[in-house]
TrEMBL record:
UniProt name for this protein: 3-oxoacyl-[acyl-carrier-protein] reductase
Keyword Phosphoprotein: no
Cited Pfam families: adh_short
GO annotations of cellular component type: cytoplasm
Record family assignment: Belongs to the short-chain dehydrogenases/reductases (SDR) family.
GO molecular function annotation: acetoacetyl-CoA reductase activity
Length: 246
């Protein structure tokens, strides 16, 4: 018990690798899952057990401030103080702007950007009072360079790093670091669902010559959440194989 880390969207493609990396770091890990997916989360948890990992699963709707407050309260009561928060939950609702409806805009902003406020607001003051905290926000290369057909997602992910830079300054004196990780194309289900010829064109543009792995991203998260990583704050770490640099 203790040294608690929360990963939102923890049962997803990248979230799973993050949970394992944080557990390897000696943390008590909570994979927070979307409330409607309780059965899936329990099956996920059982699968982790067979791999030798004991990961707690708790429900949260990251778009709902009250749900985030309830999650953190329950975790702090049952497991102990939250030391690490990884804001990883996210969705896409792609469309070119002339076809993007308000529902798609609102859903992506709520799930990818407002969620970061909703969760961070619950833990930030407590971390500051305890003089230790590690917050990592998962953005995207598409928030850095913009992406055709993703005005909502690009705006949300760019906003995430603005949040990171502001809150990093507020946490710095109290041992709370806040950083962004911006993955490029990672070989999760979402990316593997892209037609093979299109995927080959994407890979051809990646200097490293391959898609990223969930472990590539998870290792970066674990690096930033390490007890010793206190001098890195407000940064945006690129995990994109050299695809985009600035
Ligand atoms: P997944 O879809 O596998 O994971 C996203 C997770 O977020 C899912 O577990 C999903 O739960 C959860 N989630 C969605 N909405 C909510 C909500 N309202 N409340 C709580 N949880 C929610 O995607 P990835 O693992 O690929 O992506 C993880 C993060 O990495 C995202 O922020 C994504 O934007 C970012 N990213 C991914 C890249 C990639 O190549 N895969 C590249 C760049 C960035 P459920 O499925 O049960 O709804």
């Amino acid at each position: 018990m203790g040294k608690v880390a929360i990963v939102t969207g923890g049962t997803g493609g990248l979230g799973t690798a993050m949970c394992l990396a944080l557990a390897d770091q000696g943390r008590t890990v909570v994979a927070a899952y979307y409330p409607a997916e309780a059965e899936k989360a329990r099956a996920w948890q059982a699968e982790r057990k067979t791999e030798g990992y004991d990961i707690a699963v708790y429900p949260v709707d990251v778009t709902d401030f009250a749900s985030c407050a309830a999650l953190v309260e329950q975790i702090e009561t049952e497991l102990g103080p939250v030391e690490v928060l990884v804001n990883n939950a996210g969705i896409t609702r792609d469309a070119v702007l002339k076809k993007m409806d308000k529902t798609a805009w609102d859903a992506v902003i709520a799930t990818n950007l407002s969620s970061v406020f909703n969760m961070t607001r619950q833990v930030f003051e407590k971390m500051a009072a305890r003089r230790f905290g590690r917050i990592v926000n998962i953005a995207s290369v598409n928030g850095q360079k913009g992406q055709f057909g993703q005005a909502n997602y690009s705006a949300a992910k760019a906003g995430v790093h603005g949040f990171t830079m502001a809150v990093a300054q507020e946490g710095a004196r109290n041992g709370v670091t806040v950083n962004t990780v911006s993955p490029g194309y990672i070989g999760t289900e979402m990316v593997m669902a892209i037609a093979e010829d299109v995927r080959a064109k994407i890979v051809a543009q990646i200097p490293v010559g391959r898609l990223g792995t969930p472990q590539d991203v998870a290792r970066t998260v674990a690096f930033l959440t390490d007890d010793d990583a206190g001098y890195i704050t407000g940064a945006d770490l690129y995990v994109n194989g050299g695809l985009y640099l600035h």
